[in-house]
Design goal:
single chain; mainly beta; Methylamine Dehydrogenase, Chain H; five-stranded mixed sheet; four-stranded antiparallel sheet; globular
Length: 379
């Protein structure tokens, strides 16, 4: 998967028992594959999901026409669930465009965010689209360069989007019902201000309890400090907290359940290569689960129905030592006591998004045939 399409977006060993510390057990799968429409002549990749209630949800991503090694034919994709997945018409684009995040507060209020690239997939500008219950419309974000990776929608006059300004500055924009505006941010590490960074995901439990996560790099004395960090909004200001993990750690998803209960999924590259699930207990972030690098894991997103019902979704690489390793999807469940691996039905290559509302949980990504892949469960 090209990283341009897996921002915020999102491989493993033959022995899954190696994938988790403390040896959690497999749990019986309650996941069901839900058919999704395929774009004409295109390959579809889903990057994010949002749910309003049991019967209404969104998933967004991109579609491109193969062969296309650099995704220069990328066009945005948004599917709407009201009992079946249906394609929706998006505003026309003239450049390569992908959607990385989606949020919805009601049937008549949803936001999708991403990136438009005029020339070369590494440069671009943020994209924000709004759903009013009937149609999508383009709304100009304030930033003129960079991209948006995630959005949290609390209502028609209160939405938050996170991403990167230019190539390397953390970005938060707030929608007040009329326009998007910049919001001042603290340094990732207040003890060593400055540096660069990216925000990759956001979750809102309420107007006074919002978390955003990302990665940063700065100078700490004579050394370079880097890793994952989290921003919390208490209704008045953002505060920054460093997250544990290797220097190459990049959070890919976050969910907040309450002021003393939030979860994040983190991926790292380089020699560490671990994937982590981290927990906020009201005081500090700690590592709750480690998927060792030997399994080439990737955790794409995390969602929760309650403090004792949390789902992390991602993928692993099977047959690592064979000439033809295959990536497959998996999920991990927290029941309030411990984490367990929950298998998924065949057909998935990666899971990059997750959402829940009411009794329903969604996991979305890409199938083994490069088509949209969606899973749901209601148990």
């Amino acid at each position: 998967m090209n990283t341009w399409l897996r921002i915020g977006c999102g491989a493993l060993a033959a022995t899954i028992g190696l994938a988790l510390t403390a040896g959690p057990a497999f749990a019986a799968s309650g996941w069901n594959v839900v058919p999704a429409p395929k774009s004409p002549d295109g390959n579809d990749m889903l990057n994010a999901a949002a749910a309003v209630n049991d019967s209404e949800a969104w998933t967004v991503g991109t579609t491109f026409t193969p062969p296309d090694a650099n995704f220069v034919s990328a066009r945005p994709l948004a599917l709407h669930w009201t009992g079946t997945w249906q394609s929706t018409v998006l505003p026309p684009v003239t450049a390569n465009t992908a959607l990385f995040g989606v949020g919805a507060s009601s049937a008549t209020d949803a936001w999708a965010v991403g990136k438009e690239t005029a020339s070369g997939y590494r440069a671009g500008k943020p994209v924000t689209l709004h759903w009013n219950g009937r149609t999508w419309s383009a709304v100009s974000p304030l930033a003129v360069a960079g991209f948006l990776a995630g959005v949290a929608d609390l209502g028609p006059t209160n939405a938050w989007a996170v991403g990167t300004m230019g190539r390397s500055s953390p970005l938060v924009e707030h929608w007040d019902g009329t326009q998007w505006g910049f919001v001042p941010l603290p340094a990732p590490d207040p003890a060593n201000p400055g540096g660069t960074g990216h925000l990759t995901a956001i979750s809102a439990h309420g107007a006074n309890d919002i978390w955003a996560v990302g990665s940063f790099s700065t100078i700490a004395g004579s050394a370079i400090e880097s890793g994952g960090y989290a921003l919390h909004w208490n209704g008045t200001a953002w505060t920054s907290t460093l997250m544990p993990g290797p220097a190459t750690a990049t959070p890919s998803g976050v969910v907040t359940i309450g002021p003393k209960d939030a979860w994040a999924v983190v991926n790292s590259s380089g020699s560490s290569g671990d994937a982590l699930v981290e927990h906020w207990n009201g005081t500090a972030w700690s590592i709750a689960l480690t998927l060792p690098a030997i399994t080439y894991p990737h955790l794409g997103a995390i969602t929760a129905r309650s403090g004792t019902d949390v789902w992390a979704v991602g993928d692993i690489l099977t047959g690592v030592t064979t000439p033809t390793p295959v990536r497959k999807t998996l999920t991990w469940h927290w029941n309030g006591i411990g984490w367990s691996v929950v298998t998924t039905p065949p057909g998935g290559a990666q899971l990059s998004g997750a959402a829940s509302a009411g009794q329903r949980v969604w996991a979305v990504g890409t199938g083994t045939g490069n088509g949209a892949f969606t899973l749901t469960r209601t148990d």
